[in-house]
Amino acid sequence: MLNCNALVHELNNRCWKVCSGTGKLSTKLDSRLETCLSNCVDRFIDTSNFMANRITSLAAQSASSDGQSSWD
């Protein structure tokens, strides 16, 4: 649970800075900012899933060619 909270905090900081431009707090969340934040988080999740799948695939290929797991 701690890692999940840390991830949410990190995404919040990164995406807020990217989407708000200034990183300053605003009194309202307009539709442009909401869309940007949603897209930012979606891209992070897509990239994380892609990287996890790629690492798993490379590990499986390495294990099948070496006859053993590279994670041992």
From TrEMBL:
User: What GO biological process terms are annotated to this protein in UniProt?
Assistant: protein transport
Main location per the UniProt record: mitochondrion
Query: Any idea which UniProt keywords this protein has?
Result: Chaperone, Disulfide bond, Membrane, Mitochondrion, Mitochondrion inner membrane, Protein transport, Translocation, Transport
Instruction: State where the protein is found.
Output: Mitochondrion inner membrane
Q: A cellular component term (GO) from this record?
A: mitochondrial inner membrane
Q: Which InterPro entries match?
A: Tim10-like (IPR004217), Tim10-like_dom_sf (IPR035427)
One protein family per Pfam: zf-Tim10_DDP
The segment(s) forming the Tim10-like domain are 3-56
Membrane topology designation: Peripheral membrane protein
Q: What does this protein do?
A: Mitochondrial intermembrane chaperone that participates in the import and insertion of some multi-pass transmembrane proteins into the mitochondrial inner membrane. Also required for the transfer of beta-barrel precursors from the TOM complex to the sorting and assembly machinery (SAM complex) of the outer membrane. Acts as a chaperone-like protein that protects the hydrophobic precursors from aggregation and guide them through the mitochondrial intermembrane space.
Q: Domain comment text? A: The twin CX3C motif contains 4 conserved Cys residues that form 2 disulfide bonds in the mitochondrial intermembrane space.
Quaternary structure annotation from Swiss-Prot or TrEMBL: Heterohexamer.
Per the record, the similarity remark reads: Belongs to the small Tim family.
Protein name listed in UniProt: Mitochondrial import inner membrane translocase subunit
Which organism encodes this protein?
A: Hyalella azteca
